[in-house]
Specification:
The protein is an alpha/beta fold. It has 2 domains: about 130 residues, ATPase, nucleotide binding domain (Nucleotidyltransferase, domain 5, 2-Layer Sandwich), CATH 3.30.420; about 180 residues, Nucleotidyltransferase, domain 5 (2-Layer Sandwich), CATH 3.30.420.40. It is about 45% helix and about 20% strand. A 5-stranded mixed sheet has the order 3-2-1-4-5, sandwiched between helices. The chain has a 5-stranded mixed sheet with strand order 8-7-6-9-10, sandwiched between helices. β7 and β8 form a beta hairpin. α5 packs across α6 and α7 runs antiparallel to α8. It is globular, with a radius of gyration of 21 Å.
Length: about 350
C-alpha cells in the first residue's frame, strides 16, 4: 500500500511517500527565514511560499521512488483546521493528483493527525484507552477525551491565547529570535543550569487555574504579567541583560507548563483514564515532558511522540492518520476535489 501525504497547514511544506509502514522519503521545506522578517507567520506570505515549494518537495519525493506516480494507492492531505490560504495549496495539488490518477484522496484533520503522531514507531497495543490528550501548539491548546482511537471529544480549550502563541509573543517581547518556542526553552534551560540545585524559582508570574474542575485554559494574563516585568526591569537598568531574559524565560515556562500539566492531571482525575498523551509542537518541550513524567505515582501511562520531529507539522503525522483510517475503513472512498 503506497500513500502520498501532504501537509501545508501553516508554514512548513511537507510531502512524503510511504509504502505500508515504511517511510520511503519525506521532504519538508521550512519558511523560517521568510518569516524572520515579520517575526510572525503572515497567512498570505505563507501561502505564496507553499505555492513556490510544494512542487519542489513533491519532485524530491518522487525522484526517490522506484515506482511511478500511477502506482500510488492513496493520497492524504490536511484539510483543516489552521491557515486557510496555506491549506488551499496542499489541498489543490492533492485534489488535482487525485483526479488525474483516479486515486482516492483522504482528508485529514490537523489536530487528529497530531494525536496520531503518538502511534509513530509504536504498536497499537502500547496505547491503552480510554485516554486524554493535551494538544498544544501555537494555534491550539485543547484537551481531548478518547474512549477509543476514533472517538475524540474536546473537554477543554483555551478561552483566549494558545500556549504556543504565548511562548511566541513572550519571546518577541524579550527580543529573541524566530522561531520563538525553542528559543524560550533554550534561554530557560540556561537559567536553570546557572541556579544552584536546591534553589527554586521565584514564581513571579501567575498560574491561571480558572474555576475548580475547569479544564479550559487562559494565557493572555501571563503575557501581560511578562510585559509588566520587562517594563519594570527596563526602568531599573535601561535594558534587559542576558540574565534577565533567561530568568524571565525560565519563570514564564514554569508558569505555563505547570498549568498545562495540572489541567491534564485534572482531566485524569475526572475521567480516570488509562493513558495521558501529549501532542502538537509544544509537546516537544523538554520541561513539559519532564513535569509530566514526574507524575509516576499515579496509575496511568504517559505517552508523547517518540521523536521531537513527530511533534511538529509534517507529512509523517498526516500519513499515520491516513494509514489507520485505511486499515479500519474510517474514510469514504472519494476521488476528486476536496474543500478546506
Amino acid at each position: 500500500m503506497k500513500i502520498l501525504a501532504f501537509e501545508t497547514s501553516c508554514d512548513d511544506t511537507s510531502v512524503a511517500l510511504f509504502e505500508d509502514k515504511n517511510l520511503l522519503f519525506m521532504s519538508t521545506l521550512s519558511q523560517i527565514k521568510v518569516h524572520e522578517i515579520t517575526a510572525w507567520v503572515v497567512p498570505e506570505v505563507a501561502a505564496r511560499e507553499h505555492a513556490n515549494n510544494i512542487f519542489i518537495a513533491l519532485k524530491e519525493v518522487l525522484d526517490t521512488a522506484w515506482f511511478s506516480l500511477k502506482q500510488i494507492d492513496y493520497i492524504a492531505v490536511t484539510t483543516n483546521p489552521w491557515l486557510i490560504p496555506s491549506l488551499l495549496t496542499g489541498v489543490s495539488v492533492a485534489s488535482t493528483l487525485s483526479q488525474i490518477l483516479s486515486c482516492p484522496i483522504i482528508p485529514i484533520h490537523h489536530i487528529e493527525a497530531h494525536i496520531f503522531s503518538n502511534f509513530l514507531k509504536r504498536e497499537e497495543s502500547e496505547i491503552s484507552f480510554p485516554a486524554v490528550c493535551l494538544t498544544v501548539s501555537g494555534g491550539h491548546t485543547d484537551i481531548y477525551f478518547l474512549s477509543d482511537m476514533w472517538s475524540l471529544e474536546k473537554i477543554g480549550a483555551t478561552i483566549d491565547d494558545a500556549a504556543g502563541e504565548a511562548y511566541d509573543k513572550v519571546a518577541k517581547m524579550l527580543g529573541l529570535g524566530y522561531p520563538w518556542g525553542p528559543i524560550i526553552s533554550e534561554f530557560a534551560n540556561n537559567w536553570k543550569e546557572k541556579r544552584k540545585a536546591w534553589e527554586k524559582g521565584k514564581n513571579i508570574f501567575p498560574r491561571v487555574w480558572l474555576e475548580k474542575k475547569e479544564l479550559n485554559f487562559s494565557f493572555s494574563g501571563i503575557k501581560s504579567a511578562v510585559k509588566r516585568e520587562i517594563d519594570m526591569r527596563k526602568l531599573q537598568k535601561w535594558d534587559l541583560s542576558i540574565e534577565d531574559k533567561e530568568e524571565i524565560a525560565f519563570e514564564f515556562q514554569e508558569a505555563v507548563n505547570e498549568v498545562l500539566v495540572w489541567k491534564l492531571l485534572l482531566a485524569w482525575k475526572i475521567f480516570w483514564v488509562k493513558t495521558l498523551m501529549l501532542a502538537g509542537g509544544v509537546s516537544a518541550n523538554d520541561n513539559l515532558r519532564e513535569k509530566l513524567l514526574l507524575q509516576t505515582e499515579n496509575n496511568f501511562k504517559i505517552i508523547h511522540p517518540i521523536k521531537k520531529i513527530y511533534s511538529m507539522d509534517n507529512a509523517w503525522m498526516v500519513w499515520i492518520n491516513a494509514y489507520y483510517k485505511i486499515k479500519y475503513g474510517k474514510f469514504e472512498k472519494y476521488i476528486g476535489t476536496l474543500s478546506v
